[in-house]
């Protein structure tokens, strides 16, 4: 960087331009890891080196050479301090990720399930079976089962209980629903009485409803296993709780008994008709919905380093105020192109982006742009400060930023310890929530909130940027040999 001489009457004054100019090569400091500054300090002693010290500096020695005793002690001290810093980092930051998974099974009761029993009140063997099952054994610890009759669920409103259940699940009021048809037991009794061997015990009696698109990991790891256990338990109890009372109370003559035995209905298992209203249409969806979000954080960090020489050249010729505007706008333009590439990669692998919006690619692109601008702005601010004050901080920050954003994002936050509610305010979670609307056509009711949080991050990052550039410029100018 060139040092520009000032006129005598300008000496002693400092402008924002001086401070900004000192940050022009901040990205190069990332690659050099601060070595140039440390070397300048260590090789510029206040007093001249004696002959022995000069010899040690320019001659290779055995590690155990007596002349290196002081050097070994100094290296050992620095190594121990560095190791302690890394250990503290691991215990403090890695524990965030581990902690998000700690005792999740004890919080499964935070998952709200709806159980709608529309079976008629006189012959309600199937409804009774389901109701008794969800309140027995371990099931009360696997979820909170909200049991309703037809009247309780509709609460005096006109409408269809099954359709209302689908709507409630779509609006994310419940993670899953169990529905017992209003003629479930009656249909089964009629089939037994007629010896109807073609009767399907799965199609129209019992239903389980959920949406995979609401949470890829949460549904597969916590919701589906509970529904499968419920189905297994219902199947096991069917003979005693349903078949026996039907035979004893509704099969009145020998002809019906013989027809029932010949039909094989007694040996058919009572099971649920499982309906996934927002299924995953492609395994590729897991890429942009999970690890791809981590890639976003990393690529925005890289762009800061890659464009360092460009920023350095601009700092030498632009006025301070113009340079600040340039830095803010330049990053946003870069994020626009990076996010477009990210979106096109997703589309190139045949992921349907038009499930929720006819112009789904555009919505998805804007979602990814706002995400990169939000996480990238934070990356850039921290990287500028780290370059000037403590370069190793950049690696620590990057891992911390990734772990903070993803720890509770890829699973139901309600299953994590309460402190992880902060995830609702982090960029990646809000990006994840917007993307699932685009990719699965899930509920759009919270889109405004999610977009608003991303925009807020961008605004805060850009407000902080001039302050960061000024502080880093002062520090680097102070450390520069040219100013000493």
TrEMBL record:
Pfam families associated with the record: DUF3533
Transmembrane segments: 79-98, 291-312, 324-345, 357-376, 382-403, 410-430, 450-469
Domain (DUF3533): residue spans on this chain: 83-462
Domain of life: Eukaryota
Region (Disordered): 1-47
Keywords: Membrane, Transmembrane, Transmembrane helix
Residue stretches of biased makeup (Basic and acidic residues): 1-17
CC terms in the record's Gene Ontology section: membrane
Keyword Membrane part of the UniProt annotation: yes
KW Membrane (keyword) present: yes
Name of the protein in its database record: DNA Polymerase phi
Biological source species: Komagataella phaffii (strain GS115 / ATCC 20864) (Yeast)
């Amino acid at each position: 960087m060139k040092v520009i001489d000032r006129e005598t009457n300008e000496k002693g004054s400092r402008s924002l331009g001086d401070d900004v100019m000192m940050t022009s090569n901040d990205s190069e400091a990332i690659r050099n890891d601060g070595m140039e500054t440390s070397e300048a300090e260590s090789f510029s002693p206040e007093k001249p080196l004696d002959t022995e010290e000069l010899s040690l500096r320019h001659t290779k020695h055995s590690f155990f050479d007596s002349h290196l005793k002081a050097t070994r002690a100094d290296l050992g001290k620095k190594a121990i301090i560095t190791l302690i810093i890394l250990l503290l980092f691991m215990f403090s930051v890695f524990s965030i990720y581990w902690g998000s998974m700690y005792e999740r099974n004890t919080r499964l009761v935070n998952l709200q399930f709806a159980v709608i029993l529309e079976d008629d009140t006189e012959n309600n063997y199937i409804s009774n079976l389901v109701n008794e099952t969800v309140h027995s054994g371990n099931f009360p610890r696997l979820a909170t089962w909200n049991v309703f009759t037809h009247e309780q669920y509709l609460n005096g409103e006109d409408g269809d209980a099954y359709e209302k259940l689908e709507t409630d699940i779509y609006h994310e009021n419940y993670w899953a629903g169990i529905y017992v048809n209003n003629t479930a037991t009656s249909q089964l009794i009629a089939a037994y009485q007629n010896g109807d061997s073609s009767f399907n015990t799965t199609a129209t009696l019992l239903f389980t409803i959920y949406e995979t698109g609401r949470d890829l990991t949460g549904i597969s790891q916590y919701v589906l296993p509970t529904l499968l256990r419920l189905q297994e338990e219902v199947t096991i109890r069917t003979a005693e709780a349903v078949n026996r009372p039907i035979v004893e109370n509704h099969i009145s003559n020998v002809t019906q008994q013989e027809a029932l035995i010949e039909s094989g209905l007694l040996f058919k298992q009572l099971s649920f008709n499982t309906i996934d209203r927002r299924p995953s249409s492609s395994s590729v969806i897991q890429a942009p919905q999970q690890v791809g979000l981590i890639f976003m954080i990393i690529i925005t960090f890289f762009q800061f380093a890659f464009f360092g020489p460009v920023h350095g050249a601009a700092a030498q010729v632009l006025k301070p105020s113009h340079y600040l505007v340039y830095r803010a706008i330049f990053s946003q333009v870069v994020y626009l192109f990076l996010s477009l590439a990210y979106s096109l990669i997703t589309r190139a692998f045949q992921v349907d982006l038009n499930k929720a919006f006819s112009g789904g690619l555009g919505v998805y692109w804007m979602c990814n742009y706002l995400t990169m601008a939000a996480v990238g702005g934070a990356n850039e601010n921290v990287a500028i400060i780290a370059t000037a004050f403590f370069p190793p901080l950049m690696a620590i920050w990057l891992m911390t930023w990734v772990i903070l954003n993803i720890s509770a994002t890829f699973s139901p936050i309600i299953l994590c310890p309460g402190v992880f509610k902060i995830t609702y305010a982090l960029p990646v979670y809000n990006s994840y929530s917007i993307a699932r609307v685009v990719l699965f056509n899930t509920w759009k009711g919270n889109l405004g909130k999610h977009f608003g949080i991303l925009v807020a991050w961008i605004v805060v990052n850009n407000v902080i940027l001039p302050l960061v550039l000024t502080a880093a410029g002062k520090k680097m100018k102070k450390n520069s040999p040219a100013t000493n």
